[in-house]
Amino acid sequence: MTPSCLVTGVGPGTGAALARRFAAGGYRVAMLARDAERLKAFESEIEGSISCPCDVTDDAALADAYNRVCEELGAPRVVIHNAVGGAFGDFQSIEPDVLRRNFEINTMALLALSRLAAPAMIEAGEGVILTSGNTSAHRGKANFAGFAPSKAAQRILAQSMARSLGPQGVHVAYVTIDAVIDLPWTRRMSPEAPDDYFIRPADIAEECWHVAHQPRSAWSFDVEIRPFGETW
C-alpha cells in the first residue's frame, strides 16, 4: 500500500514544499490548513494529494480531518506539524489572547494531532512525527514574548513524546529552522538582503525528508538548520 503523509499548515512556503517533496518520494499527501481555496490549488498540482481544510485548534475538526485521511489514504506513516502561530512584541505590549492562541496552534494542536496518530503508529511498530520549529524554541528574546513560550513548550512536548514513542518504534523529531524563510513577504521586509540570508523552503523539506527516513540505529531528535552565513 502506498504510504501516506499528513502535513499541517500547508501554505505557499514550507508547507507546500513538504507536500511536494513527500509526494515526489512516493507518498500520498494529506494537506491541512484553513484556506480551502489555496489547498484546492495545491491538490490540483500535487498528484495523489488531498486537501483537508480545517483549523488545527478545533479538536473536533482536526479529528474529522484525520479520520478522513485514514479513510482515503490509510493511517499516515509520517505526520508533520508545520502550522505555526506567531506574533512580535515584548511581554508588556502583547495581548494575552495572542499568546494563548499561539499555544493552541503550536503546542496544543501538536498534542491533539499526535494523540490521533500515535496509536496506529504504535500498532504498526513504525511511524514518524516531525515538528517544524524555530529559534524561539531555544531562547526567549525580548520581542518574541508573543510566541516563544509556545514554541519552547512545543519542543519540550515533542521531546517528551520522543522518549515515550521511540522505544515503541515511532521516531519523533524537532526541526529548528534558524533562518528567515525565503518567501515574497520576507523578501519585501528585507529588500537589501542577499540570497544567502534566506533559507529555501525546498531545502527545509529535503532535510525533513532525510530525518523522516533515518535508520533506527541513528535517529535524531533536535535538528537545527540554517544558511551557511547565519550568525548563531
Task: Describe this entry's structure for a reader.
The protein is of the alpha/beta class and 232 residues long. The chain has one domain: NAD(P)-binding Rossmann-like Domain (Rossmann fold), CATH 3.40.50. 44% of the residues lie in helices and 19% in strands. It has 7 helices and 9 strands; from the N terminus they run E-H-E-H-E-H-E-H-E-H-E-E-H-E-H-E. A 7-stranded parallel β-sheet has the order 3-2-1-4-5-6-9, with helices on both faces. A two-stranded parallel ribbon has the order 7-8. Helix 2 links the parallel strand 2 and strand 3. Helix 1 crosses helix 7 and helix 3 runs parallel beside helix 4. The radius of gyration is 17 Å and the shape is globular.
Which band does the percent of strand residues land in?
Answer: 15-25%
Level-2 CATH architecture? 3-Layer(aba) Sandwich
> What does the overall shape look like?
globular
Q: How would a textbook summarize the main sheet?
A: 7 strands, parallel
Domain count: the total is 1
* CATH homology group: NAD(P)-binding Rossmann-like Domain
Strands ordered across the widest β-sheet:
3-2-1-4-5-6-9
- Give me the count of strands: 9
Mean pLDDT value: 95
The secondary structure category is alpha/beta
From the alpha-carbon coordinates, what is the Rg to the nearest angstrom? 17 Å
How much helix is in the residues? Answer: 40-55%
**End-to-end distance:** 43 Å
CATH topology: Rossmann fold
Number of helices: 7
The H-and-E topology, N to C, reads as EHEHEHEHEHEEHEHE
